[in-house]
Amino acid sequence: MQDTFDQLGLTPRETLLYKTLLQLGHASIRDIADKSGVNRGSAYESLKQLQNKGVVSYFPKGKRRFFSAESPEILLKIAEEKKANIDKAIDSLKHTIIPDLHQQQPDYHQTNVRYYEGDDGIEWVLRDILNVISEQDHKEYCVFSSKPIRPYLYRPFPNYTKQRVKLGINVKVIAIGDGGEDAELSERKWIKTDGAVDASYIAIYPPKCAIISLASDNFPSAVVLESEDIAKAQQIIFHTLWGLL
Question: pTM higher than 0.90 for the full model?
Answer without folding.
Answer: no
